[in-house]
Each structure stands twice: as structure tokens, then as C-alpha cells.
Write a structure and sequence with these properties.
Helix content is 68%, strand content 0%. It is mainly α and 263 residues long. The protein contains ten helices and no strands. It has one domain.
Length: 263
Amino acid sequence: MRKNQLLAALYSAWEMLLDIPIPRKMLTTSATIRPPAVAILLALPFIGLLCGAIMILALKFTSIFLANFGNAVLYALVLTIFVLAKDSGRGFRLVMELCYDLAAGNRKIVEILPLLHIRKFPEINDLASNLCAFAICGFLLAAFTYLNFKGASLWAVPVLMMGAAVQGHLLSLRNIRGGLPFLAIPENDRNKLWVLTGFLMLFPAIEFPLAVLVSFGLCFVLAAGARKFFEELYGGATSEMITLAGITAELLTLFCGILLIHG
């Protein structure tokens, strides 16, 4: 693959996962090239890796000036904000919306999922959705603080990579609102995403072997199960359903880190 196609794949993957604009000076003709769908798919875990690495390097730099407690709090705060805001809060708000609709009790989850859309906060402002919001924010802050104290600040990288991999696994599904797949990936190329993600996860596995093995296995089962569930019930998925699966994978990976990493 030529350099421009590689950059175009990374650019397309960045736009799929993140709402963070790329500075115009960094854009070249790569932004106008349409790379192969498989290349975009394989670029997704690299975006998770890149974001996690940038966050950790920046926070390692601040640790020069801050004491352990101050750096742990800053690490947790920055990563929590990034996880929630990287997609303009879509995943966070979809979890709140799901809780709101489930608490209303009028419909089952199988009826709610294809109807999920980004609603404004006043429309989902009830006790269940607000408790869900506080629980997610509190969990992220506590989890990242704990991992930093355990010397496992690098665990942010697997968290973001697994979220990207699960979303990538579902992107070859048909968009039930548009009729076409999000990414037209040949069936024999779909497992390449997991082969690549598994290879990239070997690096954190050097330090956290059990946590990597368990989180990778659980996220693979989550992705495969969600794909089968969406295909059998709806004949495809919506972008909101895929985003919801991604944030579920991130929370699951973070939970594995808390349970299985011992400093």
C-alpha cells in the first residue's frame, strides 16, 4: 500500500472513531483519497493505540512537576474526559438514553436498540439516566486513579484499542437505516482485525498478561455475540448500536484491568 493510501486509511479510521478535528496543516491529498475498506478496518486499532499513547506520554511529562497523588488525579481526570468526549459524548449519552428507556418500562431492550438516537439532555433527564451518568463518570475516575496508583497507567491503551476493535468488527454489518454496509469487508478479511489487534496487545501483555488475555477474549465474545444478535434480530445495525458496543468494550476492558492487575 502506498503512503497516501495508508494515511488516507488512518484519516478515515480517525473520522469514524473520533470527533477530534485533525489540524489542516496535517492534511494532504490523503484526505481526498478513498482507501480500501480493509485498510480502514485495520487502521482502527492503531487509532486506539495512538490516542492512548499520546495521553500517557503527555501525562508522564506532567508527572515531572506533580506529586504522585496529583498526577494520579490528573491522569484519571484527563482520561475520563477523553473517553467520554472523544466522540462528542455520543457513547455516554446513548448509555444514558438506554437507561432512561429501560426505566420507563414501556419497551424491551430489543425494541429500544434500533430506535436509539442522540437526544438532548433535557429529554433524558430522569433519576435512572442521571444515576447512570454519575455511575459511569465515578467508575472511570476511580478506575483510572486506581490503575495509576498500581503503576498500570499503560492500561489506557488496551482500553481504547479494544473499543476500536469491537466497533470495527461490527462495521461490516448492513446499516438498517441506509441499506448498505458501513464498510464493505469481504468475509475472509474480517478476522484480520482481530489478528492485528491481538498482535498489538502482545506489547501490554508483557506487563499485564492475564488482564490482556481475559479482556481480549471477553471483547471478542462481545463483538461476535453483538454481531450475531444484531444480524438475527435486525438484519444489521445502526451507528448508535455500534457506538454502544464500543463503549461497553472500553468499560469491560477497564474493569478487567481493575480486577486482574496487581501492582
